[in-house]
């Protein structure tokens, strides 16, 4: 693309000033031949300048800048994470607020016992009805009877429903709601037993469920040898097998157990009357109030009687 003009310039400048002429020629040639490349080179020079400027920034400044950016990023991540965590905790708490945990010992028909895999009974239905009144979901925790009160007083469970008799001693560890049932401690013996009432239990081998009021009564009997079982029915079986002389246990389960066993009877003469109530942690006055309110409405609506009637036949009373 070199024009004649260029040759002319070349020629003329060659004669006068070689160096100058060559420079002019090269300048023109470059302009003409590499205009695009020339532009690119200019941009490139910009980058080079930037590179130069960047190169002049001391390493320490770079270091501080990078650290600052990293801190900013870390903070942002932390914030996001906390937000997520907070949400999860809130959800968990909301879930907990919605569930009413019932501590019980499901060895106590008709109040709580297993039907297949499921815990059912009067206490379970009462707890379900109470939970419903409270707008909560019931969760049942089956445990040893002597763990029921500690579970509630320690806050692991919200309510104790276990045919739990109100006693002054227990009131030291938890609060009781209004009562919802009456019961007596009765004596189960073999049909042919000479034992006819509480007075005949002196010096006898007596079976009880560990930690129950029956256990308390038995330990007050003079010279009695008290056998504590984990389950009331185990004591009943031991009586059947002649291993022990009698069982002291609540009246309703006594009826169920004797009906299931053979050759046993319940003595007419019983210990004093007791009352069942729901146990609630000492510091949880709010729940106590709510549950009492719910119990009251269950009593007034006839729902409580309905529940009891479902499990205890009128003729068996
Ligand atoms: N009423 C008795 C008590 O409070 C016995 C209760 C046993 N309850 C049970 N679910 N095993 O000591």
List keywords for this structure.
317 residues; alpha/beta; nine-stranded mixed beta sheet; two-stranded antiparallel sheet; 54% helix; binds arginine
Which helices and strands, and how do they pair?
Blueprint: H1 4-16, H2 18-33, H3 35-56, H4 59-98, E1 99-104, E2 113-115, E3 118-120, H5 122-134, E4 137-142, H6 145-153, E5 159-160, H7 168-171, E6 174-190, E7 205-209, H8 213-220, E8 225-229, H9 232-240, E9 246-250, H10 251-260, E10 264-266, E11 273-281, H11 285-301, H12 303-311
Bound molecules: arginine (ARG).
What does this structure look like?
With 317 residues, the chain is an alpha/beta fold. Helix content is 54%, strand content 20%. It contains twelve helices and eleven strands. It has helices at 4-16, 18-33, 35-56, 59-98, 122-134, 145-153, 168-171, 213-220, 232-240, 251-260, 285-301, 303-311, and strands spanning 99-104, 113-115, 118-120, 137-142, 159-160, 174-190, 205-209, 225-229, 246-250, 264-266, 273-281. Strands 1, 4, 5, 6, 7, 8, 9, 10 and 11 form a nine-stranded mixed beta sheet that branches. Strands 2-3 form a two-stranded antiparallel sheet. Helix 1 runs antiparallel to helix 2. The relative contact order is 0.11. The structure holds arginine. Arginine binds at residues 104-105, 107-108, 112, 145, 162-165, 209, 212-213, 250.
The whole-angstrom Rg is 45 Å
The number of distinct helices, counting runs of at least 4 residues, comes to 12
Bound molecules: arginine
Structural class: alpha/beta
Mean pLDDT: 89
Q: Ends: how far apart?
A: 122 Å
Tally of strands:
11
Question: Quick one: biggest sheet?
Answer: 9 strands, mixed
Report helical residue fraction: 40-55%
Query: Which band does the percent of strand residues land in?
Result: 15-25%
Order of helices and strands: HHHHEEEHEHEHEEHEHEHEEHH
């Amino acid at each position: 693309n070199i024009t004649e003009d260029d040759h002319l310039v070349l020629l003329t400048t060659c004669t006068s000033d070689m160096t100058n002429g060559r420079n002019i020629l090269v300048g023109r040639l470059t302009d003409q031949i590499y205009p695009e490349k020339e532009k690119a080179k200019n941009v490139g020079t910009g980058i080079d300048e930037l590179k130069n400027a960047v190169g002049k920034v001391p390493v320490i400044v770079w270091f501080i800048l990078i650290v600052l950016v990293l801190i900013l990023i870390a903070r942002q991540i932390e914030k996001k994470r906390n937000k997520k965590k907070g949400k999860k905790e809130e959800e968990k708490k909301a879930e907990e607020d919605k569930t009413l945990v019932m501590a019980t010992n499901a060895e106590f028909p008709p109040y709580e016992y297993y039907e297949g895999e499921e815990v059912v009974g009067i206490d379970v239905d009462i707890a379900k009805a109470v939970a419903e009144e409270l707008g909560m979901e019931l969760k049942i925790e089956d445990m040893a009877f002597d763990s029921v009160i500690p579970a509630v007083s320690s806050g692991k469970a919200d309510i104790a429903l276990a045919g739990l008799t109100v006693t002054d001693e227990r009131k030291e560890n938890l609060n009781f709601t209004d009562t919802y049932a009456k019961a007596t401690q009765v004596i189960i013996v073999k049909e042919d037993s000479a034992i006819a009432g509480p007075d005949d239990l002196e010096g006898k081998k007596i079976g009880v469920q560990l930690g129950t009021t029956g256990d308390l009564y038995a330990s007050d009997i003079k010279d009695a040898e008290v056998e504590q079982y984990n389950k009331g029915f185990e004591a009943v079986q031991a009586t059947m097998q002649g291993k022990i002389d009698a069982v002291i246990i609540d009246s309703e389960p006594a009826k169920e157990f004797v009906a299931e066993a053979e050759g046993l009877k319940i003595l007419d003469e019983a210990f004093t009357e007791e009352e069942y109530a729901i146990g609630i942690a000492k510091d949880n006055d709010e729940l106590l109030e709510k549950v009492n309110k719910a119990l009251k409405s269950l009593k007034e609506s006839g729902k409580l009687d309905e529940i009891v009637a479902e499990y205890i036949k009128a003729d068996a009373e």
